[in-house]
Amino acid sequence: MNFSDLGLSKDLLSSIERAKYESPYPIQIEAIPAILQQKDILGLAPTGSGKTAAYILPILQRLLPKEAPRERFIPVLVIVPTRELAVQVAEVTENFSRFLPRKIKSMAVFGGVSINPQMMKLHGVEILIATPGRLIDLLGRNALGISRIHTLVLDEADKVLNMGFREEVEHILELLPSRRQNILFSATTDNEVDVLIQKLLKDPVRIQVEGDNFTPDLIDQKAYRVSPENKGPFLRQLINSGDWSQILVFASSIRTADNVATKLSKNGIEAVAFHGDKSQGARTEALARFKSGKTRVLVATDLAARGIDIQFLPLVINYELPRSPKDYIHRIGRTGRAGATGEAISLITPEELHHFKVIQKKMGKRVLLLESENFGKNEEDS
Description:
With 382 residues, the chain is an alpha/beta fold. It is built from 14 helices and 14 strands. The strands form 2 sheets. The protein has a 7-stranded parallel β-sheet, with helices on both faces. A 7-stranded parallel β-sheet has the order 10-11-9-12-13-8-14, with helices on both faces. Helix 12 (280-292) links the parallel strand 10 and strand 11. It is globular. Residues 378-382 have low confidence and may be disordered.
């Protein structure tokens, strides 16, 4: 199927082509026509499935024939859990919008930076991508109005609630007009998400993309048994053994992420840590340098990495295992995205071996476990 089969206008199709999107992903095939029909949407889809374009493209089509708002009343609101995801959604929106006949202004707002520059840029914004806390701050200063919104998107709803934004979201919903289109995406569901779905959506079109269909089979997974004291040296040996242009390394704590990045840098490997204790400016710069290839290795914690979206990331390394199998799949799903292949390598100490077996069982896929001492030799003999 092609994008031309989904009901998009010639202007959008031209924009998609110029943005170098070749063919729609499964979630886009289902979501785009339904959103164009202004139906409520419940999308259960993992990160990397193409969901951002699935809602941004039809939203742009709806806005295109209209005039930009002269006052600070936003027609489209996208709520996201993290700063990084806000920036990512804004980048996707800008990527499509810049090729359209009329410039549709979008903007990401989030905490951790000065609010005044954001307030000054709000005039004429048609698609606002916001974290809940900063949105409420802006509303409290009468910097914008949301009483005329016709489309609400709640992206990664499970993460929004898990990060403790339930009260903020409820407050925002009270300020919205009753008649609007609601689009909710979530990787997982639980009681809190179910309550929000019941409250927010009216006769929604349900779209589900299974995680197992989008990551593990496209990713070359392997693991190396390594002693705790040899983890750092082996990581450096591993990185130096290949020509990967970008490598995302996961650590389970802020302290470990800092230590690993420092050790890599001291040994001549360009690396930077990426976590919640960094200022927003430092995180934005680190991510920009990593995406552009100026920094080869990004060492990230799970929460900070929620918004990292790099289309052709070749390698993910688990320096430490995450707590849950879901987080493991989320991590390795940063590579092998939307039809591309990728590689994921885990470093397993004796203490982590049992947990790694649990992860494999939950994932339904066995991962080859190799001996780090044999690295560089014929691994089929190890």
